[in-house]
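Chapter summary example.
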Amino acid sequence: MKKLLVMFMLTLFSMGAFAQTEQGQSAFGFNLGYNFNDIGNASLGIDYRYCLTDEVRLTPSISHLIKNDGLSAWAIDMNAHYIFKLSEMCSFYPLAGLSLSFWKADLGGFSDILGTDLGSAKETYFGVNLGLGGEIYATDQITVGLEAKYNIIKDFDGAAVAVRVGYSF
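The structure predicted for these 169 residues follows.
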């Protein structure tokens, strides 16, 4: 019932809103999500979107995968979106891009053969993003969206889903 009420409210707020994907348009957003890698990390992130054309935009972003089972990460992504406008109030897009992630494993309590505490281990990985997203234009400046992507990365590949709220200018 709550989901139905939220969708109804979003529909009401979006009446009279216009598509925010015009060439030269920019947007800043905040997202909250979950990564379905082997560990399962919640994520927080920010992004910037710039429309190169009415259909193509670039989206650099940075996300923090919150520590779970001693594993956390920072991810820097550069994705491109190809926007399909379904109406003046909503659109969807496939995405593709590159990812650079910095993983940290807290190894507290583990020691090597000589009894030296290992502390933590850090690894940097390069990956590729593929996915889909959609957004509703709640007002002329505010968007609400959902994005699902798969990050292909050595040892830590997995799907990710995030909800995004953005401000266009």
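To summarize the output: The CA atoms of residues 1 and 7 lie 10 Å apart.
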